[in-house]
Design a protein that fits this description.
6-stranded mixed beta sheet, single chain, Pyrv/ketoisovalerate_OxRed_cat, alpha/beta, Pyruvate-ferredoxin Oxidoreductase, domain 3
């Protein structure tokens, strides 16, 4: 059995680091890990995504459309963009904080967050949607830079990573992250403790 995850966001949000932490956490559990990344637009605020496949039975690092067990999105529009990869009944964990593209401010299509969130709720279903309150996390942690780790923690608590737990992710943080950021990222993982319950109550309003 394998677990397939797509992580996505825009350049600068830490999607690549998040995939490395997840892969390291899975390896710490003795799981086979395969990953693939698209990072060419990372420095321009473009779309960035990673495919991570955990466990036996994953012949390729790429997740097929309709085959992802979970999507972890650091930006709502990117969640919508990658949604075709999610299988029926799969889990979507997303931030509620938009990164509005330059095109929206220069005459392009408007960025309508409410419409995007409604679309995600309708397509995924409230039971399988976890929305992380990015502003609350930033206020508690004092920075938005650890939102990627908050989302990883929320996803782990929702069971999106199969056997990989928050404690496994904490071990990965200690092994991978620069020493000056370890305490922040460990606090970000702890911040995720109440996120899932809050988020699922939120999307039912």
């Amino acid at each position: 059995m394998s677990t397939s995850i797509v992580l996505c966001g825009v350049g600068g949000q830490g999607a690549v680091l998040a995939s490395k932490l997840l892969a390291r956490a899975a390896m710490g559990r003795g799981l086979s890990v395969k990953t693939a990344e698209t990072i060419g637009m990372a420095q321009r605020g473009g779309s960035v995504f990673s495919h991570v496949r955990l466990g036996e039975g994953a012949a390729s690092p790429l997740v097929g459309r309709g085959r992802a067990d979970a999507i972890v999105a650091f930006e709502p529009a990117e969640a919508a963009r990658q949604l075709p990869f999610l299988r029926a009944g799969g889990t979507l964990v997303t931030s509620d904080a938009p990164v509005v593209p330059v095109s929206a401010a220069t005459g392009g299509p408007a960025y309508d967050l409410a419409t995007i969130m409604s679309y995600l709720r309708d397509r995924v279903g409230e039971k399988n949607l976890v929305v992380v309150d990015a502003a609350a996390a930033e206020a508690e942690l004092g920075t938005a830079k650890a939102l990627n780790v908050v989302l990883l923690g929320a996803a782990a608590r929702a069971g999106a990573f199969g056997p990989v737990t928050v404690e496994d992710l904490a071990d990965a943080v200690r092994a991978v992250v620069s020493p000056r950021f370890i305490d922040l990222d460990l606090r970000a993982l702890r911040r995720a403790k109440g996120t899932v319950t809050f988020a699922r109550a939120c999307v039912q309003k």
